[in-house]
Every structure is written in structure tokens, then in C-alpha cells.
Amino acid sequence: MAKSRLDPQFEFFNTPLRLKRPHRNRFANPFPDWGLPKNFRLAMTPLRLRLTKLDLPQTSQGLAMHLSVVVPIYNEEENLPHLYQGLLNALDPLPHSYELIMVNDGSRDQSAAVLDQLAQADDRVKVVEFRRNFGQTAAMQAGIQAASGDVVITIDADLQNDPADIAMMLDQIEQGYDLVHGWRKKRQDTFINRKLPSKIANWLIAKVTGFPVNDLGCTLKVIRTEIAQELQLYGEMHRFIPILAHWRGARCVEVVTNHRPRLFGQSKYGISRVTRVLLDLMTVKYLIQYVVSPMKLFGSIGLMCAAAAMVSGTATLWMKLGQGVDMTGNPLLLLSAFCGMVAVQFLCLGMLGELCSRIYFQVQKTTPYGVRRTLNLESGREAATVQMKPKREAA
Q1: What does the alpha-carbon distance between residue 369 and residue 361 come to, in Å, rounded to a whole number?
Q2: How many helices (H) and strands (E) does the chain have?
Q3: Residues in the chain with pLDDT values less than 50
């Protein structure tokens, strides 16, 4: 049996595949998706197309991971012992090591004392305490940045999220997803203050962003750490984590999770958050669509204003020359001048936005793209370095 020129361990079948119709580029792959098994691929050779069998690595299912559970806390002293025990009951049977990162968001009750007791009794409990209340988004961002695990799990401290759902969500991560977010399908909350605003907000967010979602307000999420730490959360952007991760190229899936009624304490959310969600939605829309190239937004508005200025200016001249209408009293002349000035301002704003976008990516040392993996890059750089050293020494 013939051997491959690429690797001697690859074996080719003797019978070549025949094409049904000619292609302009005979070296391109004419079969984009044949539904072949995972251990097969199409290999192109200069002579003919052959089917190559590969020994691909096994999936990550069953491999041990290190988990980082991030819990934002604000006035939850009665819930913390129950939450701690519930997390132990859910995580101890799993074949994974874990850490519990408790972020005290400036609690005014005895939550800090309870966290101190838990940390002294269990070294897996890590505590981050804020000087004052900075909000849930800041607490989640601090916990994510402090995480050292392979996977980050975020969960509320109010006991309404069920820690027993974590195992099911980790199964989705092992299947290849980068982010798994919960859907509180049977939500145990009041209808007017909680359910109705949430349904309207989720519908509006799905329409504006194009991201299919049923419940963005569920804090229970499982995220690969490299994805979570790429996100920069400000204001109250924690609700949009799946959308921001999807913009960075993450594979997301939504699963139904259990939701329980609150037993202790009071809810920190109400109908007043609707305004903040709408403002954050406009920010997210700008981030996912225009942050890389702001000129597409501001330039388009500027061009529309310039077109309106030209149309109204042309109409003003036609009315003056053709019908003798006085230009000084014609409102179309004022409209033309106004639209022209607005067009110039939006075009200048777009150029400033482009400059700020480049400064942002350079200062933050981030890229407008996300890399899933690389092959043979480090080895190639090392080989190039080794080859260059003798030349430099000889020079």
C-alpha cells in the first residue's frame, strides 16, 4: 500500500475519488462537507485526491479539570453556609479539583465574618473583599480575574441557582462548547416585578443583537477561563456575558436549569433596572458591531446628512431660479446648512472613533479577533531563531 508524502504513517486507499464535474482549481477541496467521520479528512496531492485516515486525539470527556467557582456576594449572611454546603455536595462527587472564589461586594451585614470562618475552615475558599459596594459586574470581573482554574463557574449567592446543575453544564463544556448559560424556564419569582420585565428585555436583546437567547439574567454560567478572562466587564455588563463571548468567537449553548425561590434576604433587583438594561444594550450593540470600525456607524450617518443637505439645497435653488421664491425666507436653506454641518461633525466623529479604537486595542494589548488554537507556530519560531544565531555570530 502506498504511503503519504506528508507523513509515512498515513495510509491511502488505492481507489481515487472521481469528481462529477470539473473545477477550475484542481488543488482546491471540491468537497466542503461530506459528513465524514471525525477520524477521516480529505488530503490534496499534486496528482489526485485521496481519502486520508488520521489518528485524531480523543475528546476531553472524562479528563480532570480545575474549576473556579465565582460567587458575587452582597448581604447574604444567612445564605452563605447553605450555599457553601450545596457547592460541596455538587462538586465533591465530580472528578475535578475546584476552588471557591467568594467576592464580598461591600456587604453591610455579617457576610464578611461568615466568609472569614469559611476560609479558615477550608483553604479552597478564596475571599475577595471590596472596600465598598461596586456592583455585581465588578464583583464577577474581580472573581474571574482571580480564577486559576481551567473553567470558571459563576453562581448567585441567593440560593436560587441550583449547584446540582453544574455537572450537567460541565458535560456541555466537555462536548466542545466554550460557554454554557442557564435558562430559568420555570422561574420562581413574582410576575410583575421580575418575570415580565425579564421576558421583554430578553426578547428585545435577542432582536437587537441577533443572539438567540431566552434568559440572559441567569447568573449560573460555565465558561472556559481563556474566554472569560478576555471579557472586559464594566457598568452592568454581566448580563451580556454570553453575547460578548459569542462576539469573541466562543461557542455558546443555553440549557434549562433549576430555579428555586429565595429563602433568606431580599432581592437586589427590581423593575428600576429596565432603564439600565436598555442603556447597556445600546453599548453592547455598539461594541459587537462598530467598536472595530466606528466610521461605519458615524460615517453612514454623516453621509445620510450630507445627502439630505444636497437634496434640500438643490430644492432651494430650483425654487429660487424656477419659481422666484426668496431664499432668505426659505426653511429648506436652513435645513441644508444644518444637515451640512451635522454631516461634517459625524464624519469627524467617525475619524476620531477610528483613532480611539486603534489606541484602545494597543493600550489594552488586545486584538479584535480571538484565536482558538495554533499549530507549529512556536516550533517554527524556535527553528528560525536557531538558524539566525550562527549568521549573527559570523557577522
Answers
A1: 11
A2: 11, 9
A3: 1-61, 391-395
Tell me the C-alpha to C-alpha distance, in Å, between residue 182 and each of 198, 204, 229, 252, 288.
14, 18, 20, 11, 22
Which of the 8 DSSP states describes residue 62? T
Phi, psi angle pair for 247, to nearest 5°: -65, -30
Residue 26 pLDDT: 44
Phi-psi region of 162 (alpha: psi -120 to 50; beta: other; left: phi over 0): beta
Do 151 and 74 form a contact (C-beta atoms < 8 A)? no
Three-state DSSP at 292 gives coil
Within 8 A by CB and 6+ apart from 250, the residues are 178, 179, 223, 224, 227, 370
At a CB cut-off of 8 Å and minimum separation 6, what does 308 contact?
335, 339
CATH superfamily of 66-290: Spore Coat Polysaccharide Biosynthesis Protein SpsA; Chain A (3.90.550.10)
Whole-number pLDDT of residue 105? 92
Q: Is 20 helix (H, G, I), strand (E, B) or coil?
A: coil
pTM, full prediction: 0.70
Q: Which residues pair with 71 in a beta bridge?
A: 102
Per DSSP, the residues of 143-171 read HHHH--SSEEEE--SSS-B-GGGHHHHHH
- Cell 464624519 maps to which residue? 347
What does the pLDDT look like over 202-261, one tens digit per residue?
888 888 888 888 888 888 999 999 999 888 888 788 888 999 999 888 999 999 998 888
249 neighbors 369 (Cβ within 8 angstroms):
yes
Contact at 8 Å (CB) between 125 and 118?
yes
Q: Which of 192, 288, 199 is nearest to 240 (CA)?
A: 288
Task: Please state the domain extents for the chain.
Answer: 1-57, 66-290, 295-364
Q: Which three cell numbers stand for residue 22?
A: 470539473
Q: Per-residue pLDDT tens for 98-115?
A: 999 999 999 998 999 999
As a 3-state breakdown, the chain gives helix, strand, coil percent values, each rounded to 5, of 45, 15, 40
319 contact partners, CB below 8 Å, separation of at least 6:
325, 327, 330, 332
Beta-carbon contacts of 180 under 8 Å, excluding residues fewer than 6 positions away, are 169, 172, 173, 221, 222, 223, 252, 253, 254, 255
C-alpha to C-alpha distance for 114 and 330, rounded to whole angstroms:
73
